[in-house]
Each structure stands twice: as structure tokens, then as C-alpha cells.
Amino acid sequence: NASNGQKNLEKLSSGYRINRSADDAAGLAISEQMRSKINGLDQATANASDAIGLIQTAEGALTETHSMLQRMVTLATQSANGTYNSTARAAIGEEVTALKAEIDRISSTTDYNGVKPIASTSNITVQIGPTSG
Fold it and tell me: Where is pLDDT greater, at 87 or 6?
């Protein structure tokens, strides 16, 4: 019974009911499956957090782009007013050209961990479940 006493002492000192497969093979298998699921859920949480960061980055870029597009609409309406001469219209055209260039720059340089959410033409897949697939 020294062996039982030693096993009990090991269980008490480790805090685990199962320390090796000989203690309870089925219980160990279940425990390892649960540990695997927990690790999968932890990674899913990290993946979801990364996805939120990506979306927030894209949202910031799109918000800025939206402001520029609104400004371009205002400029187009302003330019259509018959009270502006060719010099004023040329200045408006230059501002529109600069806004277009800035929109292109934002699109091509917006980046989150190497992913370009605005310029990319491919789908972005995020694994947020405990298992892949």
C-alpha cells in the first residue's frame, strides 16, 4: 500500500487527479481533448481580436475616404455654379485631383499585420471557432 500512498501524495502535491495514463486512461484522454478545445478557443479569441483590429483599421481608412468623397461632391457642385471663372474651376479641379490621389494612397497603404484590407481583391478568412474548418 506504499504505492497507493505515494500515488495519493503525488495527486495531492500536483493538484491533479490524473498525473499519468495509468491513473485513468479514459479520464486522461477526455482531459487532453478538453485541453485541446480550450487551446483552440484561446486561439479563436486571439483571431477574433485580430479581425476586430483589421476591421477598425479598414473603417478608419474608409471614414477618411468617405470625407474626401463628400468634399469632391461639394467641389463638383461648386464648380457647376456659373459664377466661377476658368481660374477658379481650375483650382477646384486641382483640389479634386489631389483628393483622388490621396484616396488612392490611402487605399494602397492601409495595412494591418501585412494585410491590405482596402486594396486587396481576395477574401479575408478568420477562424473564430475552436477547430479549423
Answer: 87
